[in-house]
Amino acid sequence: MFNLRDKTAIVGIGETEYSRNAPVSLLSLELQAATSAIEDVGLSIQDIDGIIPGFMGPTVEDFVTNFGLKDLRYTVTVRLGGASAVASLQSAAMAIASGVAQTVLCVTGWKGCSEGGIVAITEGQALPMMSVTHNFEFPFGALVPVQWYALQAKRHIYEYGTTSRQFGAVAVAMRKHAMLNPKAIMKTPITIEDHQNSRMITVPFRLLDCCLESDGAAAVVVTSAEKARDLKHRPVYIMGVAEGHPDFPNYIPGRAKITELGLKKAAPRALVMAGITINDIDVAEIYDCFTWNVICQLEDLGFCKKGEGGPFVENGRIELGGDLPVNTHGGLLSQAHILGMNHVVEAVAQLRGDAGLAQVKDAEIALVTGYGDLGDGSVVILRR
Amino acid sequence: MTQTQKLLPIPDLDTKDFWDGCRHHYILVQRCRNCGTFRYYPRPMCHNCNSMDTEWVRATGKGKIYSWTVTTHQFHPNFKPPYIIAIVELEEGIRMTSNIMDCDPEELWIGMPVEVIFDDITSKITLPKFKPVK
C-alpha cells in the first residue's frame, strides 16, 4: 500500500482572536486565519495551489476570488462535521504526495456564538447528510448533538459504570489548560464540585460538560516534506492519518454498539501508517464537543480498554504533568469551538516548542482527533 | 409555519409507508424478503444482504428502553422541557429514537418495558411515542 508517512508536513498555522461576538463576517475571519497561516509559512498567497475549505460557511470560490488566486489546482470539501478539519489533512497529504498540488491551505471557522445556535441548525443551514436527523430525530425534540450524544453517554454509564465526576475531570483539565492559553475564552478556574453543581442540560450532561459557542477561525498550510525543509519553521510531519465511519453513520440507534465511534476503525490505520504504538504519543488533542466524547475517544484510540476511559481521565492523568496531557490549549470546552482546527494548530505549536506555558516538555509526537456528525472519526499523528 | 419550521417529518417515497402506518396507528417496519433482516429508519436497501426486495410488516409496538435522556434545557420553542428522549429497542430487534410519555423521569431505567402510543400532531402526521407498560 502507498504510504503517506512523513511525505508531507504542516508548515504554517494561523488563528484569529477567539471571542463571542466577532464584529466581522465569517469569511473575513477565515481570510484572516488563512493569511496569517500563509505568512507563518513564509510564502506568498500565490504559492497556495490547493484549498480545502470548511464543511459549512465560505466555499473555495470565496477564497480564490478574495485571494486573486491565479492557479488553483486542487480543492475538495470534506463533509464530516467536526471530523472534517483533521480528515482534510488526509486529503491534503494525498493531493501533495500524488503531485496534484504542492501547497494546500486547510481553513475552518465558525461564528457559533453570534450566528450559530439551534435556529441555524434546525431552520437555516440544513446539511444534506442531516435529512435522516430531520425526519427521525427532530420530531421527537432530539435537536442537537448534546442530546444525541447524551443517549450514547447514558448507555456508556450503564454498561461500564462511568460517572459524572469522571466527566467533570475532563472539564477541569481543559479549564486548567485554558488558563495558560492567551487565546482561550474561559479563564475562571473550576473544580469537580463546580461541575457537579452546574445545571443539567440533558441527562447526563451538565452545562460544564458542554463545549463553548464561540466565534473565530483557524488554518494550517500543508506542503511536501521536501519543500518543508527550506521554510521558516521546523516542519511538523504528518506521520499517520486516517478517517473512520461508524456503521449507520447517520442514525445512532441503528448501531450494534452505540458506545463505539468511527475513530475505533481509523486509529489502528493511522498508527500502522505512522509505525508507532499508542504509547508513543506525548500529547493528544482530542475533539471535546462534550466531556464524555473525550472519554470514549481515548478508549477507541486504545489508550485504555473500552469502558476504562472514565477511570483513565481521573487524578490528573490528562492534565499537564500527567501521563497523557490532553487539549493543552483548553479545547472546545474552554478555549473556543473552532471545529477542531484549533486542536491541529495547538499540536503543531507543541511540536515546534511554541506552546508557551502549556508546553509539554520535549513533545515529539502528537495525536489529534476529529469527531463529527454522529460519530465520524478522524485522527492524525504528527511529529517534529 | 412550514412543516420544516415545525420540525415535523416530511414523508418521501422511501418513508411514506412508515408515516402512513403511524397515521393509522401502527408501526410498520421493513423486513428484507431475501434474508429476513428488519431495518429502521425506512430505506431502500437491506444493509445485511443488499437486497431491495422489501416487505412492510406490522410491529408489535412493544419494546424496551435501550438508552434515555431527560432534556431540561429549552432548545426550541416547540419543545418545552423537561421531556424524555429514548432509544427504544422493539421486539423485532430494531431501535428507534422516540419520546417516553406518561412517565416520571425518576422512574426511568434501561431495560424498562414500553409500548407504543400514537401522537396525532396534525391531520397528516402522527408520531409513534412510547409509555411504560403498567
Helix count of chain A equals 14
Mean pLDDT across every amino acid position of chain B:
95
CATH superfamily of chain A: Thiolase/Chalcone synthase
CATH class of chain A: Alpha Beta
What top-tier CATH class of chain B fits best? Mainly Beta
User: Strands of the biggest beta sheet of chain B: in what spatial order?
Assistant: 6-5-4-7-8
CATH fold node name of chain B: OB fold (Dihydrolipoamide Acetyltransferase, E2P)
Spell out the helices and strands of chain A N to C: EHEHEHEHHHHHEEEHEHEHHHHEE
Q: What's the number of domains of chain B?
A: 1
The CATH architecture of chain A can be named as: 3-Layer(aba) Sandwich
- Whole-number tally of structural domains of chain A: 1
Radius of gyration of chain B: 16 Å
Q: Could you spell the SSE succession of chain B in H and E letters?
A: HEEEEEEEE
Radius of gyration of chain A: 19 Å
Percent in strands of chain B: 35-45%
| Strand arrangement, major sheet of chain A | 3-2-4-7-1-8-11-10-9
Segments of chain B where pLDDT lies below 50 for 5+ residues?
Answer: none
What percentage of amino acids of chain A are in beta strands?
15-25%
- Total number of strands of chain B: 8
The major beta sheet of chain A can be summarized as: 9 strands, mixed
